[in-house]
Write the C-alpha coordinates for this entry.
Amino acid sequence: MEPIYTAVATSLGDGRNGSAATSDGSLQVELTVPVEMGGPGGATNPEQLFALGYAACFHSALKGQGKALRIPVEDSAVTAEVGIGKLENGGFGLAVTLRIELGGVSIEDARKVAEAAHQVCPYSNATRGNVEVKLDVEVG
Protein backbone atom coordinates (compact mmCIF):
# COMPACT_ATOMS: atom_id res chain seq x y z
CA MET A 1 0.00 0.00 0.00
CA GLU A 2 1.24 3.49 -0.86
CA PRO A 3 0.06 5.89 1.89
CA ILE A 4 -1.90 8.96 0.80
CA TYR A 5 -1.36 10.59 4.21
CA THR A 6 0.68 9.69 7.27
CA ALA A 7 -0.19 10.92 10.76
CA VAL A 8 2.71 11.29 13.18
CA ALA A 9 2.28 11.43 16.96
CA THR A 10 4.70 11.06 19.84
CA SER A 11 4.08 9.80 23.37
CA LEU A 12 6.15 11.30 26.19
CA GLY A 13 6.44 10.61 29.91
CA ASP A 14 5.26 7.23 31.14
CA GLY A 15 3.00 6.23 28.25
CA ARG A 16 -0.46 5.96 29.79
CA ASN A 17 0.57 8.51 32.43
CA GLY A 18 2.18 11.11 30.23
CA SER A 19 1.33 13.19 27.22
CA ALA A 20 1.08 12.82 23.48
CA ALA A 21 1.12 15.25 20.59
CA THR A 22 0.91 15.24 16.82
CA SER A 23 3.89 16.41 14.82
CA ASP A 24 1.96 19.35 13.35
CA GLY A 25 0.91 20.58 16.81
CA SER A 26 -2.82 20.32 16.08
CA LEU A 27 -3.46 17.89 18.94
CA GLN A 28 -1.80 17.72 22.35
CA VAL A 29 -3.26 15.65 25.18
CA GLU A 30 -2.43 14.68 28.73
CA LEU A 31 -2.87 10.96 29.39
CA THR A 32 -3.75 9.04 32.54
CA VAL A 33 -4.79 5.52 33.36
CA PRO A 34 -8.58 5.32 33.88
CA VAL A 35 -9.87 4.84 37.43
CA GLU A 36 -11.35 1.48 36.33
CA MET A 37 -7.82 0.27 35.60
CA GLY A 38 -6.38 1.50 38.91
CA GLY A 39 -5.25 4.91 37.72
CA PRO A 40 -6.12 8.44 38.78
CA GLY A 41 -8.33 9.26 35.78
CA GLY A 42 -8.90 12.92 35.07
CA ALA A 43 -7.45 13.01 31.56
CA THR A 44 -7.90 11.09 28.33
CA ASN A 45 -6.53 7.64 27.57
CA PRO A 46 -5.54 5.68 24.45
CA GLU A 47 -8.88 3.83 24.29
CA GLN A 48 -10.79 7.12 24.16
CA LEU A 49 -8.53 8.40 21.40
CA PHE A 50 -9.01 5.16 19.45
CA ALA A 51 -12.78 5.44 19.92
CA LEU A 52 -12.77 9.02 18.59
CA GLY A 53 -10.78 8.04 15.53
CA TYR A 54 -12.80 4.92 14.79
CA ALA A 55 -16.16 6.73 15.18
CA ALA A 56 -15.12 9.56 12.86
CA CYS A 57 -13.55 7.28 10.27
CA PHE A 58 -16.48 4.85 10.25
CA HIS A 59 -18.95 7.76 9.98
CA SER A 60 -17.14 8.99 6.86
CA ALA A 61 -17.21 5.47 5.40
CA LEU A 62 -20.93 5.26 6.23
CA LYS A 63 -21.63 8.51 4.37
CA GLY A 64 -19.58 7.38 1.38
CA GLN A 65 -21.23 3.97 1.18
CA GLY A 66 -24.65 5.58 1.55
CA LYS A 67 -23.94 7.61 -1.59
CA ALA A 68 -22.55 4.59 -3.42
CA LEU A 69 -25.61 2.50 -2.54
CA ARG A 70 -28.06 5.40 -3.01
CA ILE A 71 -29.20 5.07 0.62
CA PRO A 72 -29.62 8.48 2.27
CA VAL A 73 -27.35 8.96 5.29
CA GLU A 74 -28.13 12.57 6.20
CA ASP A 75 -29.43 11.98 9.73
CA SER A 76 -26.71 9.81 11.25
CA ALA A 77 -24.36 9.32 14.17
CA VAL A 78 -21.68 6.77 15.03
CA THR A 79 -20.58 6.05 18.59
CA ALA A 80 -17.57 3.81 19.17
CA GLU A 81 -17.23 1.97 22.47
CA VAL A 82 -13.72 0.60 22.94
CA GLY A 83 -13.15 -1.85 25.78
CA ILE A 84 -9.82 -3.14 27.02
CA GLY A 85 -9.32 -6.39 28.92
CA LYS A 86 -6.96 -9.25 29.63
CA LEU A 87 -6.47 -11.98 27.08
CA GLU A 88 -5.98 -15.64 27.94
CA ASN A 89 -2.28 -15.35 27.05
CA GLY A 90 -1.75 -12.69 29.73
CA GLY A 91 -1.64 -9.76 27.33
CA PHE A 92 -4.35 -7.19 26.75
CA GLY A 93 -6.82 -6.86 23.92
CA LEU A 94 -9.55 -4.57 22.68
CA ALA A 95 -13.21 -5.07 21.84
CA VAL A 96 -15.27 -2.53 19.91
CA THR A 97 -18.97 -1.88 19.57
CA LEU A 98 -20.02 0.60 16.90
CA ARG A 99 -23.44 2.08 17.60
CA ILE A 100 -24.74 3.32 14.26
CA GLU A 101 -27.85 5.51 14.23
CA LEU A 102 -29.59 6.31 10.96
CA GLY A 103 -32.78 8.27 10.47
CA GLY A 104 -35.21 8.09 7.59
CA VAL A 105 -34.25 4.63 6.30
CA SER A 106 -35.44 1.09 6.88
CA ILE A 107 -33.53 -1.17 9.24
CA GLU A 108 -32.61 -3.34 6.24
CA ASP A 109 -31.08 -0.38 4.38
CA ALA A 110 -29.37 0.82 7.55
CA ARG A 111 -27.75 -2.58 8.07
CA LYS A 112 -26.78 -2.77 4.40
CA VAL A 113 -24.96 0.57 4.44
CA ALA A 114 -23.35 -0.19 7.82
CA GLU A 115 -21.99 -3.53 6.57
CA ALA A 116 -20.71 -1.85 3.40
CA ALA A 117 -18.98 0.83 5.50
CA HIS A 118 -17.44 -1.89 7.67
CA GLN A 119 -15.80 -3.36 4.54
CA VAL A 120 -14.14 -0.10 3.44
CA CYS A 121 -13.38 1.73 6.72
CA PRO A 122 -9.61 1.72 7.35
CA TYR A 123 -10.12 1.14 11.10
CA SER A 124 -12.39 -1.83 10.38
CA ASN A 125 -9.83 -3.23 7.95
CA ALA A 126 -7.03 -2.72 10.48
CA THR A 127 -8.90 -4.52 13.26
CA ARG A 128 -10.52 -7.30 11.20
CA GLY A 129 -9.47 -10.73 12.44
CA ASN A 130 -7.71 -9.27 15.47
CA VAL A 131 -10.29 -7.22 17.39
CA GLU A 132 -13.90 -8.19 17.95
CA VAL A 133 -16.05 -5.46 16.36
CA LYS A 134 -19.84 -5.52 16.78
CA LEU A 135 -22.15 -3.37 14.68
CA ASP A 136 -25.25 -2.20 16.55
CA VAL A 137 -27.52 -0.55 13.99
CA GLU A 138 -30.56 1.50 14.97
CA VAL A 139 -33.02 3.55 12.93
CA GLY A 140 -35.16 6.42 14.06
